[in-house]
Every structure is written in structure tokens, then in C-alpha cells.
UniProtKB/TrEMBL annotation:
Region forming the signal peptide: 1-18
Organism of derivation: Archangium lansingense
Domain Peptidase M1 membrane alanine aminopeptidase, first and last residues per copy: 337-544
InterPro entries: Peptidase_M1_dom, Peptidase_M4/M1_CTD_sf
Keyword Protein transport belongs to the record: no
Keywords linked to the UniProt accession: Signal
Name of the protein in question: M1 family metallopeptidase
């Protein structure tokens, strides 16, 4: 999920994937794979669901087939029942939210939090569960709480089979459930304007991990509760879903619409299908305007595009479409061609803002605005780029966001930054002003910040937590967001600085191609980095992904003085004993001697090699490598000539992670601290305005 609320690019360095003809598709127009399956297809779902907007009731029937990948019989199956997170204030979701200070647009500091009317709570209730053609399993249903001691949480349950599923065998279950759609919250729900976003809406199997996945030494179920600061993890499979809603509603969903029929009772039934995905989401509203187009680019597969935008935000439609095309283009060439044949982009209404900025396979929610900035609205472009980017790290690779949120959110934030640079998407606070003010006072606020500028303002204080940590173990919202989003983005940018852009591009492509459809872990990413770079970068991963220390190197004031000639006795410079007396220089005949000194310091705990770039007044420069181990080092330079003095000293290396970038440079007679500090402040303001816009527009 995006936190917009957050160099030439690689395109010129990455060769095109083909010449003029489009790449062959991986899926047909029915969402079915052409050729062998792309994934293991551990779970297959057939779902028939009906929405009644008058009561916000959702009822469904589900047939799910599960295959036992392990070498051991399995008698117990684990399921998610996500919407019970919104059932009452005793759920783990709300306990987490209170402890972390709230979620997204909800502030948990009020003693009465959460404040919801009776019909605004949501839930999901399993009414029937049986082996297909066999035993009733409902009496065996037990709610579990594997992550905490909260016996009142009902987001995970188990059932026990009458006969274990043998290794390599499969079982088919039939479920019936009823649910009430909650008032929109975080990733799902409904609004007063009649908008519905159905995310994590059906009983869903957990993941049986088999050795050596995730460090498992024996088969184990990975099925975490729904936490306030977590997302999801699931097996790949096939989804065939029928949705029945009022005929006036316009619907978008994961996969491809393969059939639609109108029913005598004034409803319509739409059938969607998609192979080789790990989730299914959908949306419905009478207020949607529908835009359709096709992405075509030489060397990349064609992708059908549907944009569903609230009628009040219709002017955002062209930019939603353009940013989706740009994302498919760039990410397809940098990382791997996106294989699916269709993408749906949803821009919720204003009262559905909490549902914006979310990703599901082939289906994303973004942000629409009544008066988007031109020519490229920062909020729209960055949100679409970010959510579509998830269709790689969470869609194709399906990493475990419960346990390693950075592996999706952090890598994706890095990709978002790269795309926004490639497309020259800039944040201008004037674009966030209402139309009359935009024209009258907008020029007073006009700035031109690109992603590099914004990234410079992301540095924070000493980290409270490491990047590699389970999502629900962070102490606050800020701690989670920083370590799942901005800090990994900066760390990956620092890695790019360390290995070079071309090598980093090969790292990302290798990682995607090797691990798509396979659920990689952080260690798998690190192994690819070491392999492609040809270096053992374990120190980098230990320091910046597993560690919590602060990186802070600084340049002190530059001091220069004109020196007199040498005085005293000197030998011949060859070890001889001849002593020669040197006289002070003759100012009329000799070049002036300029001696300059500067001190570089390590103020933080983290120790890394640092390149010190020294620029002289005559324009020449040199770079000295400092191992960065000591607390400080004094550098001195003695040169002759009129322009021999030092002009500027800058620190290079992994400075993207420095918590005080303002002290990374020094200019003779003009400290860089004030200018950079002011720049950091304006960058902060830029991010603040971006967040406000994403929440309220």
C-alpha cells in the first residue's frame, strides 16, 4: 500500500526486450494461462457472492481445492477470516491500532476510539463448511490466535479433517458464509455515497510452508492474524468468481470479465476469471465513470486497461490512464514484462479515501481529484506507480508482508522513486490548493521538487527498530512506515550508489525473473545482490537492514592560510645526510603556498567507508577514501598557485542513509548547512502537503 500520504533513470541503460513486435501473451482473453501453469497453483477458488446494498450484506458460497505440497500428511487446515478484524474493539486489529496511535486516517488517541455506529462494524461468519460430498467440518472450527494472547480475536480459524490429506494429495471443501460490509476502513468497506471495495472479503486458506521455505525445518502453517500494520501472504492458484449486484452498479475486479447476465430481480451476475494469482478483490458503485484503453508497446505484451473513477473526479481519468501505461512500460522493461492481460485502476470517491492506495493482483486503487495538477498530478502519478509496482513485489513474487513488509513496500517505494524520476513527476504544493487560490496565490507556493529532492528529506533520527521485523512488532505507526517504506527505499538507493546503477538494474531483473511465483524471503534478495554484484555485502545487510544504529558523518569548517617558504634544515630527500638550509620564499619570485585543512567526523554509531571529494578554487578535484572507523580525521592540502585554496569538501558513498545530510558538505566562506537545512525543511513541507492531499482530496 502506498504512503504517498512518500541521474537519469535506468531506462536508458537497460536494453529493450524486443524490437518492434509485441511479446507473446502469457494469458488469453479469458484470464487463462497459455501453456503450462506459471505457478504451483496450491489453491483454487470458485466463489459465488451476492451483495445487497440496502443492508450492506454479503453472502457467498465457496468451493476451494487445496493441494498438500509437503512430505507429511495434513489433517488440520488454517483459514483467514479477515473481516472479523472490524467486528469489535477487542480484535487484534483494533488492539494494535490503539497501541500504535491509529491507522491511516483514524486517530486512536481518543479514549472512546474506535467510534462506530452499530451498522458500521463488519464481520464474516462461516455458516457451513464440509468436505465436498463428505463430512461436516463446522463442529471442528476453532478460532486461533498464533501471534498474541488475544482469545477474542476471530480472524484466524482451523478445521480438522476426518482423514489427513496425504503428501501430494488434495482436498476440496465447500463453504457458505455471510458477512456485513464495514464502513470503509483501510483496505475494504463501503461509503455513504454507495462505493464498495471488497478486499480480503472471503474465507481464505493460509500458507503451508515446506522446508526450506522461510527457514522451516518441517511443514508449518503460516497464517497470521489481521494486524493494524500488516498486509497479506497467500498461495497462488486459480480464481473463478461470480458476483451478483444491482444492475445499476458498475463493477471492476481481479482478472478478466468473461460473462455478464441480467437477472429478472433487477440484479446482474458478472463472472471473472484469472489463473496464477494469489488473491481476488473487487469494487462496485453506481457513480463510476468507466474509461477503457489498451496498452501497446513494442516488445511488451498487450494489456487491456479499465479505469473506474468517481464522477466527481472524472478530470483525473486521463492521468490515471496515462500513469498506468507509463508504469507498465517502465517496470516491464526494467524488471520483467508484466504477464497479465488486464489491469483495473479504481479511483474511489472522496468519502472512500481510506480505500485508495491499495494493491491486489491485476487490480489497484489509486486517488482521484476534482482538479488534478497539470500536466502530471503528483498524487495521481505516484499512487498509480506505487500500487501497480506492487503487482511485481506482492503480485508476481508474493512475498510475506506479515513478516517482511520491507520486501514489498520498501522495494516498491524504491521502484516508485525511479519511475517518478523517469517520468519527471514533480511535487508542487500549489497544485494542492483549491482552484481559485491556485491561480491567485499559487505562484507564492510554487516549487519544483522531484523524487530526489523528496528523498533527501526522508532521513530520520536513530532508528527504533530494524528494517527486518514482523509488521506488528513495530512500536508506532511512524516506526512501521519508516522501516517498511522510506528507510528501505533510501537503503536500496544507497545500495545502488555502492554497486552502481547498471549493476543494480541487473540485480532487480535477476531477482524478479528468478523468484516470480515463488514467495522469496529477504535472504533470497540478499543472495541475488551478492551474486550479481560479485561482492560479499553481508556487512551492508547487517548494518542497514538488521541494525538500528545511526549513520552520521560530517564535514567541519574549511581553514586555509597562505604559508611562508620552508624554514630550517632539510636533507636531500633521498636518505642522504646533506643538510640544506631553506630560506623563506621570495614573494616576488615564488608562487604563493596555500595550506588548507578540513576535519571530517563520524558522529553516529555506524561505521562505513566514506569518499571525501575535495574541490579546489581552480576547479580541479580529488577524492580521498576514509575508512570511517575513527571518530574524526583531519585532511590537509598544500598547493601553490593563485587558485590553490579549497573551495568545497563533500562526503560521498552511502550518504542517502545519513540522518543529517545537511552536514555532509562544506563550502569555503559559505557554509552549506543553512542552505541544505532550509532545503530539508521545504522537502518536509512537500511531503506533508502530499500526505494531506492523499487523505482529504
Amino acid at each position: 500500500m502506498t504512503r504517498v500520504l512518500s541521474l537519469l533513470l535506468l531506462l536508458g541503460q537497460v536494453p529493450a526486450l524486443a524490437a518492434e513486435s509485441p511479446a507473446p501473451p502469457a494469458f488469453d482473453k479469458q484470464g487463462r494461462t497459455l501453456g503450462p501453469p506459471l505457478s504451483e497453483r496450491v489453491t483454487d477458488y470458485e466463489i459465488d457472492a451476492r451483495l445487497d446494498p440496502s443492508t450492506h450484506a454479503l453472502t457467498g458460497q465457496e468451493t476451494v481445492t487445496w493441494r498438500n505440497r509437503s512430505a507429511e500428511p495434513q489433517a488440520t487446515l488454517w483459514f483467514h477470516l479477515y473481516w472479523n478484524a472490524f467486528k469489535n474493539d477487542r480484535s487484534t486489529f483494533y488492539r494494535d491500532s490503539k497501541a500504535m496511535g491509529g491507522i491511516r486516517n483514524e486517530d486512536a488517541n481518543s479514549p472512546s476510539y474506535p467510534e462506530r455506529k452499530k451498522d458500521e462494524w463488519g464481520y464474516s461468519n462461516v455458516k457451513a463448511l464440509r468436505v465436498k460430498g463428505g463430512a461436516d467440518l463446522l463442529p471442528t472450527l476453532r478460532f486461533e490466535h498464533p501471534d498474541d494472547d488475544n482469545a477474542e480475536d476471530q480472524t484466524v480459524f482451523t478445521v480438522t479433517l476426518p482423514e489427513p490429506v496425504p503428501p501430494g494429495g488434495q482436498v476440496t471443501l465447500e463453504l457458505e458464509w455471510e458477512a456485513r460490509v464495514p464502513k470503509v476502513i483501510l483496505r475494504a468497506g463501503r461509503t455513504d455515497s454507495g462505493f464498495y471495495l471488497m478486499g480480503q472479503w472471503f474465507p481464505k486458506l493460509g500458507v503451508l510452508e515446506v522446508p526450506p521455505e522461510g527457514g522451516a525445518t518441517s511443514p508449518r502453517w503460516n497464517c497470521h492474524q489481521y494486524h493494524a500494520a500488516s498486509e497479506f501472504y497467500a498461495d497462488f492458484g486459480t480464481y473463478d468468481v461470480r458476483l451478483t449486484v444491482p444492475q445499476a452498479m458498475k463493477v471492476g475486479a481481479t482478472g478478466v470479465l468473461v460473462d455478464r447476465r441480467e437477472n429478472p430481480d433487477g440484479t446482474q451476475t458478472l463472472r471473472y476469471h484469472q489463473d496464477d494469482v494469489h488473491d481476488f478483490a473487487w469494487t462496485a458503485s453506481e457513480r463510476f465513470e468507466v474509461l477503457e484503453d489498451v496498452f501497446r508497446s513494442p516488445g511488451l505484451p498487450e494489456v487491456g486497461l479499465t479505469v473506474l473513477v468517481d464522477r466527481n473526479h472524472l478530470r483525473s481519468g486521463p492521468q490515471l490512464m496515462a500513469s498506468a501505461k507509463a508504469s507498465i512500460e517502465h517496470f516491464g522493461r526494467w524488471w520483467s514484462p508484466w504477464p497479465y492481460s488486464h489491469l483495473t485502476v479504481v479511483a474511489p470517491p472522496t468519502d472512500g479515501t481510506p480505500a485508495g492506495g491499495m494493491e491486489y493482483p491485476t487490480f489497484i486503487t489509486a486517488v482521484g481529484r476534482a482538479e488534478p495538477g497539470e500536466p502530471k498530478d503528483f498524487i495521481i502519478w505516484q499512487t498509480v506507480a506505487h500500487e501497480f509496482g506492487h503487482n511485481y513485489w506482492q503480485g508476481l513474487l508474493a512475498s510475506n508482508e506479515f513478516e517482511e513488509p520491507w520486501l514489498d513496500e520498501g522495494i516498491n517505494s524504491y521502484g516508485t522513486y525511479k519511475l517518478c524520476l523517469a517520468e519527471d513527476v514533480r511535487a508542487n504544493p500549489a497544485d494542492f490548493l483549491p482552484s481559485p487560490l491556485r491561480g491567485w496565490v499559487g505562484p507564492l507556493f510554487a516549487q519544483d521538487w522531484d523524487e530526489r529532492d523528496r528523498m533527501r528529506g526522508m532521513s530520520g533520527l536513530r532508528e527504533n527498530s530494524p528494517i527486518i521485523q514482523a509488521s506488528w512488532q513495530y512500536r508506532s505507526r511512524g516506526d512501521y512506515f519508516r522501516n517498511a517504506y522510506s528507510r528501505p527505499q533510501l537503503t536500496l538507493f544507497a545500495l545502488e550508489q555502492l554497486v552502481g546503477e547498471e549493476t543494480m538494474a541487473r540485480i532487480m531483473r535477476t531477482y524478479v525473473e528468478r523468484w516470480k511465483f515463488r514467495h522469496p524471503r529477504g535472504e533470497d534478495f540478499f543472495a541475488v545482490v551478492n551474486e550479481v554484484s560479485g561482492q560479499d555485502l553481508g556487512w551492508f545487510f547487517d548494518t542497514f537492514f538488521r541494525g538500528t544504529g545511526a549513520l552520521d558523518y560530517a564535514v567541519g569548517p574549511i581553514e586555509c592560510e597562505e604559508r611562508a617558504g620552508k624554514k630550517g634544515l632539510f636533507d636531500d630527500g633521498k636518505g642522504g645526510v646533506l643538510l640544506v638550509e631553506r630560506e623563506p620564499r621570495d614573494a616576488a619570485k615564488d608562487e604563493p603556498v596555500k595550506r588548507c585543512e578540513v576535519q571530517v567526523s563520524r558522529l553516529g554509531d555506524i561505521r562505513i567507508p566514506v569518499d571525501v571529494r575535495v574541490t579546489f578554487a581552480d576547479g580541479s578535484s580529488l577524492v580521498e577514501r576514509w575508512n570511517g572507523q575513527e571518530r574524526w580525521k583531519r585532511l590537509s592540502f598544500e598547493r601553490t598557485g593563485k587558485d590553490a585554496g579549497l573551495k568545497q569538501v563533500e562526503l560521498h558513498g552511502v550518504n542517502a542513509l545519513d540522518i543529517q545530510p545537511a552536514n555532509n558538505s562544506q563550502t569555503k566562506d559559505l557554509s552549506g548547512h543553512v542552505a541544505v537545512s532550509l532545503f530539508g525543511w521545504t522537502t518536509y513541507v512537500s511531503q506533508m502537503l502530499s500526505t494531506a492531499a492523499s487523505l482529504f482530496l
